[in-house]
Amino acid sequence: MLNRIRPVLGRVLTPVGQVxxxxxxxxxxxxxxxxxxxxGGALALFPRGEFFWGTLVITAFVLFDMLDGAVxxxxxxxxxxxxxxxxxxxxxxxxxxxxxxxxxxxxDGQEPLAGVALYCLVAGVVVSYAKARAEGLGxxxxxxxxxxxxxxxxxxxxAGFHGLGVPYVxxxxxxVLAVLSTVTxxxxxxxxxxxxxxxxxxxxxxxxxxxxx
Length: 213
Known about the structure:
mainly alpha, Four Helix Bundle (Hemerythrin (Met), subunit A)
C-alpha cells in the first residue's frame, strides 16, 4: 500500500543522499550499519522492557537505512548484489524486531501475546518468501494489504506507545498484524494461483488435439 508513495519519498531523500555520498560511505555499508543498529536496538532494549527507547533507536536506524537507495542512485552504484543485500538485511531487521518484542513480552509475563509476536514474525517471513519465490518463477506478486512497510510502522508505533504506558495498544496491534499478515499470504497465494492457472489453460489450449472432422 505504501509503495505508491515511494517515488515521492525517493525525491525527498535524494538531496540527503547527495550529502551522505560526499562522505564516501557506500550504499552497502549504509544497509549493513542500518540493519546492525535496528537489530542491536531491538535485541538490547525490547527484552529489557524498554519499548519506548527501543522504538526510538530502531526508528533512527530505519530512517538511516532508507538512505542506501538514494546514495546508490546519486553515486551510480546501483547493483543486483546491493538489491539482494538490502532485501536480506530487511529480513534480519524484521526478525530482530519481532524477536525482541516476543522476548520482552514473555519476560513481562505476557506469554500469549509473546506467541502472537512469534506468529507475526513467521507470517512476515512467509509474506516475503511468497513474493520472492513467485517472482523467481516468473510471476508477479505485488498484492497484499500488509507489506513490510505497513507491518513495521504498526509494530513500532504500537511498541512506542506501549513503552509510554498506553494500555492494550501493543496487544491490539499485534493481533491486527497477525490477521493482516495472514490475509496478505492468502492474497499472494491467490494471485500466483490465478496466474499459474491462466498459464496452464493457455498452454493446454495450445497443445489440445485438433477436433476430428
